[in-house]
Design a protein that fits this description.
The protein is of the alpha/beta class and 299 residues long. It has 13 helices and nine strands. Strands 1, 2, 3, 4, 5, 6, 7, 8 and 9 form a nine-stranded mixed β-sheet that branches.
Length: 299
């Protein structure tokens, strides 16, 4: 039987993390391991995990704060299973998530990534559909009915044009993840970078929307949105798209290279953030956002 690890890099809201853990433990398919890597210092957290009394749950607290990227890398290093889910510490699984994803993985032996059906929730847990997710759905997400296999330049070009994936919901082939892992030099766009690296390594993806089995939480104010208003997020994105476009050219994937150079969804996102940066009178952020929104092929 295919084995599964849920890796949970934790930092932030204790209650939301506990809800995420409970959603894993509520799976109808009970054959899994949950590994929580705590990058915080909340005093009550270790005792709460000890009180669960579930030998499928493994909890460890970092000796010092590693930050997002290093903690994600540690999740990959500590994973052991055939398939690995690096879920957000505030996201939620539907009870049949593992049953659904295991079925998709076993139906396509050796598949590199499984993207199941996702719905977006807000900070209070209500199903929502904001501008970013509507744009994903209408402009960039392929109109898949049921299950579809995607790979290579086609998928690379698609996600570089507009990243419609919900990375925390994706189950990745463990062996491939442990070979590639997250790049050191990205903190916001690291999930897209990892997916493209896996595609370059020859991995394929199953996309399935026959059932919604994952709830992705999008907060009104988050670290990524703060970085977006300041322009930091898009400075990193510009650096990534420039580098990956050159790699796509060298690989002989011209469609993917063009998509990276134009990075239309990222530029549109920057444009939508401009009014907020102007209201905040964040002059440096305004300049960075405008530069990203109105420049292509030079990032």
């Amino acid at each position: 039987m295919v084995t599964f690890d849920f890796m949970l890099p934790y930092y932030g809201d204790v209650r939301l993390m506990q809800d995420a853990v409970r959603s894993v433990l509520a799976q109808t398919d009970r054959e899994f391991r949950l590994v929580v890597i705590d990058d915080g210092r909340e005093a009550e957290v270790p005792g709460w995990f000890e009180g669960l009394g579930d030998d499928r749950v493994h909890y460890t607290r970092n000796a010092h704060n590693l930050g997002i990227t290093k903690n994600f890398q540690k999740c990959v290093e500590l994973s052991e299973a055939d398939y690995v889910v690096i879920m957000g510490c505030d996201d939620l699984l539907h009870p049949d998530y593992l049953k659904t994803v295991r079925g998709l993985a076993e139906a396509t032996p050796g598949i590199g990534m499984v993207q199941p059906g996702v719905e977006v929730i807000d900070g209070s847990g209500r199903v929502t559909q904001g501008l970013a997710d509507n744009t994903k759905k209408r402009l960039y997400q392929p109109q898949v009915k049921g299950t579809r296999l995607r790979a290579g330049e086609e998928l690379a070009a698609s996600v570089l044009r507009g990243n419609w994936l919900y990375f925390p919901s994706i189950a990745g082939r463990g062996e491939a993840l442990r070979k590639v892992s997250f790049r050191d030099d990205y903190s916001v766009i690291q999930d897209l970078a990892l997916v493209v690296d896996l595609l370059e390594a020859g991995e394929r993806m199953v996309v399935d929307n026959s059932a919604t089995v994952f709830q992705y939480r999008r907060h009104a104010v988050s670290e990524s949105s703060v970085q977006a208003f300041s322009g930091t997020r898009f400075t990193e994105a510009a650096r990534y798209f420039h580098a990956v476009a050159e790699r796509m050219d060298a690989r002989g994937w011209p469609k993917a290279a063009r998509a990276a150079r134009f990075h239309s969804a990222s530029r549109l996102h920057a444009l939508t953030m401009l009014p907020g940066a102007l209201r905040r009178r964040h002059s440096e952020g305004v300049r960075a956002l405008a530069r990203h929104a109105f420049t292509s092929g030079q990032s």
